[in-house]
Each structure stands twice: as C-alpha cells, then as structure tokens.
Amino acid sequence: MSAKTPDAAALRCADPKLAEATAYVLSNPGKQLRSRLTLESCELIAGETLPTAICIGTAIEWLHAYSLVHDDLPAMDDDPMRRGKPTVHVAYDEATAILVGDGLQAAAFNLIAGEETLTAETKVDIIALISEAIGFGGMVGGQALDMAAEHQTLGVEQLREIHLQKTGALIKAAILAGARCANADKEAIHRLGEFADHIGLAFQVADDVLDVTQTTEALGKTAGKDQSAEKSTYVKCLGLAGAREEAERLLRHGLSCLDYFGDAADPLRATANAMVIRGR
Ligand code: GRG
Fold it and tell me: Which of 134, 163, 167, 214 to mutate to test ligand 1, by most ligand atoms within 8 A of the CB atom?
C-alpha cells in the first residue's frame, strides 16, 4: 500500500491558474520517501498499514512539495528545474508558486484535521508534531540558517545543527507520526527518533554528494548548484570521500537503532539504505 496520489481537485480551489499549478506539482510526486517512512513506521508498530497513516503520509508529501516549490523561488535557491520539469515559478509565475506552497501547507493540516479514523487527541498530537517540525525550530528555521551560511565554510557540528532542522525535521516527523498513529510506546518512539535523526542527516549528506557527482538529467534538478551558489555543504567541509564516509557512518548508526525491532523493521531498513545509497 502507498500514500494516496494527491488530487488537486479535492483541494477545492476556484482559481483556475492556481488549481492548475497545484495539479502540476502534485502530478509529479517525486520519490515519495517521506510517506513511505510514515507507512513503514506505522506498520512496524501496528503490524499493518492503517488508513490513518495513508492520510498522514499524503499530508507530509504535500508539505514536502510546498517546501520544494518555495525553496526553488528566485528569493531562495532560484532554480529553474525540479523533478525533471520547469519549477512552478518558471512554468507559471512567482506569485502563483508562493500561493501553491501556502495552499499546500494549509491543505496538509486540513487533511489531517478531517481524518475520521483518528481520535481528536491523536490528531492534535500529530498536528503539533508536524507543525513543530516544519516551523521556526525546524524546516523553516533550518532553511534560514542554511541561507545565512552561504559563502562560508562550516564545520560538521554546525552543518548538523542546520540540517537536523532543514532536512531532518520533516523526515523525523514522517517517521514519528507513523508510529504515533499506531500508538507506539515511549521506548519505540525514542528508538525511532534516534534512527530518524541519523537517517535525515545521512540523506542530506548523500544529497550534497549527488550534487557534485550526478548530472542535471539524472537528478531532475540543476546539478552543481551548491558550488555555484557557494552553499556550505558536507562535500565542501569534508571533501567527496569524507562526505561519503560520513553518510555511511550516519546510516550505520541509524540502522543500529532499529536492532531493537528485529526483522519487523526490514522495510524501514530498506528505505533508509535507498535514501543514502543513491546514484552511486
Ligand atoms: C523553503 C520553507 C522552505 C523550506 C525548504 C527541504 C528544503 C527546505 C529545501 C530543499 C533543498 C534540498 C534540495 C535539500 C536536500 C534534501 C532534500 C529535501 C531533497 C529533496 O528531497 P527528495 O530527494 O525529493 O525526497 P523528491 O523530489 O524525490 O520528493
């Protein structure tokens, strides 16, 4: 079972251009790694994929899509390509891209709020968990720190601080929300949280490596962007071989957190491996 293909019609948007631009984003959903993590983490705890996890995974994908649309804007990364197609501000215009992102963020929380299979208490917990992860102390704050770090060379500890927030927080929320909707106990949440922190960082390190080793065609977004924008990356800090080693070290540590769950965590192990060992 997988997350629902997000359907723009269900978002009830009366403006044809905004509706079309939203459909343009949602019809090209990317790898859907975060919703896969939500479903697998739910399945690990509940022994099956609950419909609730499909709803939460879909909402997480909408939030991720919003972050990419805004990240690509001229005021941020100013990127013309995403998922192999022109970015929203290129295919439409900048105002439309801002509104698509804003609308997707609201729609994601509305989707969870309306989910009938969740109790009110679990909904509030999950909405609190996800909103904290994408806000000032998470994805948005991490994005600001990352932008402020351009033209600098940061150390591994500073990069860790930034990317636990910018990239890691939503990945962690995806994993923990899947476990929370299955009523995971404190120990399971603790183990999954530590797994998530390491996998989120390893994913970012792998992304930095791919930026310098892959073509624009293979990535579906502009290759070499980190260097041209003078981003502070793991490759800049550690060199290519050092960054690869760091990704593997983080992956190993993350996977060790799953030992507690035995074979039941195999799907999560496979996803973690796929997230870090990409395009080599
Ligand atoms: C603008 C609010 C705001 C936040 C932006 C997540 C983010 C913060 C920016 C994305 C920049 C980036 C390329 C980060 C590296 C890790 C990452 C999120 C890669 C893209 O995720 P994938 O590979 O993409 O899962 P797909 O397209 O497969 O969904």
Answer: 167
Contacts of 79 (CB under 8 A, 6+ apart): 71, 72, 87, 221, 222, 225
How many beta carbons lie within 10 A of that of residue 58, not counting itself? Answer: 26
194 contacts 243 by C-beta, under 8 angstroms? no
CB atoms within 10 A of CB 131: 16
Mutate to test the pocket of ligand 1, among 32, 166, 204, 219 (most ligand atoms within 8 A of CB): 166
What residues contact residue 85 under an 8 Å CB cut-off, 6+ apart? 24, 28, 91, 220
Query: Tell me: the pLDDT tens digits for 110-166?
Result: 999 999 999 999 999 999 999 999 999 999 999 999 999 999 889 999 999 999 999
Burial of 269 (0-12, 13-18, 19+ CB in 10 A): middle
**The model's pTM:** 0.95
Q: Tell me if 40 sits within 8 A of 268, measured CB to CB.
A: yes
What is the rounded CA–CA span in Å between residue 256 and residue 212? 29
| Separation of alpha carbons 259 and 199, rounded Å | 15
Per-residue model confidence as pLDDT tens digits over 181-224? 999 999 999 999 999 999 999 999 999 999 999 999 999 999 99
